[in-house]
Amino acid sequence: MRPSHPANFPAAWINLSHHASYLHWSFILVSLPNLLVIALMFVVFFAAVLLPMPERKRGGRGSR
To answer: N or C: which end of the chain has fewer CB within 10 A?
Structure first.
């Protein structure tokens, strides 16, 4: 298979020839792919907030 073959690209794995499904709830209308992206952004955001940050080592040249 050649490196530039369309099957090597992730977009070729999904059929993009049809319309997206939509979630309609009251006045909210959002496509399911966009809802998935929004959910993944929330997961990354909360992981960044909740996971502990690495501690800085004390006693180095730049410590006060």
So the answer is: C
Q: What are the sequence ranges of the domains in the chain? A: 20-45
Alpha helices in the chain (DSSP H): 32-50
| pTM score of the predicted model | 0.58
Burial class (CB in 10 A: 0-12, 13-18, 19+), 45: exposed
Residue 8 makes CB contacts below 8 A (sequence gap 6+) with 1
* CA-to-CA separations, 51 to 37, 40, 44, 64, in angstroms, rounded: 21, 16, 10, 26
- In whole angstroms, what is the distance from residue 53 CA to residue 31 CA? 35
Q: How far apart are CA 62 and CA 50, in angstroms?
A: 28
Alpha-carbon distance 40 to 46, whole Å?
10
